[in-house]
Amino acid sequence: MNILTKIASLTLAVTCAGLVVTASRAAETVGVNQETKTEARKDSSSQGKAKVGAPAPAISLKDAEGNAWSLSDAKGKVVVLQWMNPECPVCRRVSSDGTTANTLKAVREAFPDAVYVGINSSSSRPSSFEASKGYMANHKLDMPLLIDTDGAVSKQYGARTTPHCFVIDANGVIVYSGAIDDSPSGGAKTNYVVDAVNALKAGKPVTPSETKSYGCAVKNK
Amino acid sequence: MTKRLATLFRTRKPNAIGRPWLACWSLFLAAFASTVMAQEEPPGSSPTLNARPPASGSDVVRASLWIVEGKVEAGEIFTLALVLEIAPSWHVYWRNPGDSGFAPTLSLTPMGGFEPVGDLAFPRPSILGNGEIVYGYEGKVALFQRVRAPKELPENALIGAKAKWMACKSICLTGEAVLNLQATPVAAKMSRPTRDIVDAARFQLPTPLSAQSVWSVESIRDQNGAVTELSIRGKTASKLESARAITFIPDVTPGVTHGDGGPIAATLEAIASGSAATIRIPITVDAANALGKPLRAAGLILIGDGTNASDHCYSVEVPLDAGASK
Q1: In which domain, by residue range, is B169 found?
Q2: Same-domain pairing of B102 and B240
Q3: Do B69 and B182 sit in the same domain of this protein?
Q4: ipTM score
Q5: pLDDT, tens digit, for every residue of B5-56?
Q6: Which of A3, A15, A185 sits opposite B2 (nearest CB)?
């Protein structure tokens, strides 16, 4: 009985130690948040280098399955970039409710040789990269999901959210940057990416060429 | 081994180990008590904030709907408050969320015949962020929606609504709640804590800057007539205000960009009668991106950090003509 009491005491000690560690970790996290609350926007000098009307910065990445992909290989084709993060609920929403699939379909109807890729720049969350494997297949999306391991491409493009979309014309010029559509919580009335691609198809100016993207912050380092 | 441990414990004096154990028990009990307190259910209609780990935004934000102004009478306008109680360390977003996120929405179900009048009104947000620009709310907040009752109002009318939101800390979750509120014959009465949330939020609703005679807004144009800057100048309304930070934050204005979208601090200067604040806001206009809406520069002027009773909040809205476009 006495031994059992000691074992119970030891268990309690381990529990308490765990609580202390958890509490100290939580305190550290709070400390970090408080420190950074007053920080200016991270990487402000490098944000938004890619401008509408300017040539699209080069991209050379591997997809989640390890296949190499380069923007230069899509020369002469319309390209759509969509920032994605399998751990972001907004990204999952546009993947599962048909928003991305319908956008992809409309883009390929306008330009059968168009290239549509997802980019995951969640370099501060390795678990997101891990979750990228099979993500497109699971959502029946016939497009690669590129892994931007150090987040450099997101910084070059100034991608702020998942999903943040860019449309690049056949001359390699960015013609649209912003939200995929006009409704963060679903039920959109206007799909800006489809409108941009249809404007390219019709030889008209892309309007709007910039909108405010919505969703989770791109979790780059 | 067991024998050695038993011997070790037996040879110790009770007082020698009693104090650490007492401290440990205290810590354990304190942790238990705080967990229980965190799980205590606040008033409202959506699920509790006790999911571990949270699976959706509904686990970290509790939503409830209340009638806070006016009576629900046929054809008359009254005001609803959407109260959001947010779990510690999480935040929801203002109308302009900043770099990411999206603002909460409240949509009325059409069946009851209740119709929204105007947009959802947001109180003064906080400037948050973790290396990015975030405008939003932590803790508790109420958003306000004016509503017109149907001309034929049943005896037992229910107001049906759906609230949606995005809540973030290091990760983000989306949540929603279907809220049904008894409107007639007698509306549900708010508890004191809920009334406090509503009153605090109502106090923090922005007042139009145009109603403040001590402030002026000037549009600076380039040689082509395009607006390139807003210059907002004002005498500080009190000595206390003059000692506090004054900051502009931009609203959602398609086709119009204010600086880099981040907060812009005022500069304070001494004048004969006290001090004056000047906020210079770089403006970029592109009418093609206005999404069919009138071009306007708009935002809030925040006095202080919102923790003081004199921390007022003013709304600025400046219509921009087509000549203002680049």
Answers
A1: 57-205
A2: no
A3: yes
A4: 0.78
A5: 333 333 333 343 345 454 445 444 444 333 333 333 333 455 556 557 888 8
A6: A3
Average of per-residue pLDDT values in chain A: 83
Is the entire prediction scored with pTM above 0.90?
A: no
CA distances from A117 to A89, A180, A192, B254, B286 (A): 19, 13, 17, 27, 28
Give me the number of domains chain B comprises: 2
Q: Which residues have C-beta within 8 Å of that of residue B44, sequence separation ≥ 6?
A: B62, B63, B64, B83, B85, B194
Task: Flag if A88 and B289 touch (Cβ within 8 Å).
Answer: no
Contact A211 B254 (CB under 8 A): yes
Residue pLDDT, tens place only, B247-277: 999 999 999 999 999 999 998 876 666 678 8
Same-domain check for residues B124 and B198: yes
Q: Which amino acid is at B17?
A: I
Determine whether the interchain pair B100/A214 forms a contact, defined as Cβ–Cβ distance below 8 Å. Answer: yes
pLDDT for B12: 38
Q: Any idea where the domains of chain A sit in the sequence?
A: 1-39, 60-217
pLDDT at B4: 43
For residue B162, tell me if it sits in a domain. Answer: yes
The reply to whether B127 and B242 lie within a common domain is no
How far CA B146 is from CA of A117, A185, B69, B165, B208, in Å, comes to: 43, 22, 9, 19, 18
Integer-rounded Cα Rg, in Å, for chain B is: 26
Superfamily (CATH) of domain A60-217: Glutaredoxin (3.40.30.10)
C-alpha distances out from residue A100 to A82, A93, A95, A165, Å:
9, 9, 5, 11
CATH number at residue B239: 2.60.40
Q: Is B319 contained in some domain?
A: yes
CB contact under 8 A, A36 and B133: no
pLDDT digits (tens, 9 = 90+) for B201-231: 999 999 998 877 788 899 999 988 888 999 9
Using an 8 Å CB-CB cutoff, list chain B residues near A19: 27-28, 31
Domain endpoint, select from B188, B205, B222: B205
pLDDT digits (tens, 9 = 90+) for A38-73: 345 665 444 557 899 999 999 999 999 999 999 999
A126 three-state secondary structure = helix
Judge if B93 and B183 occupy the same domain.
yes
Residue B9 lies in a domain: no
The verdict on residue B188 lying in a domain is yes
Residues of A in contact with B132 (CB under 8 A): 41-42, 160, 217
What single string gives the DSSP state of each residue in A160-172? -EES-EEEE-TTS
B160–chain A nearest CA distance, Å: 18
- Give yes or no: residues B199 and B233 share one domain: no
Same domain, B297 and B230: yes
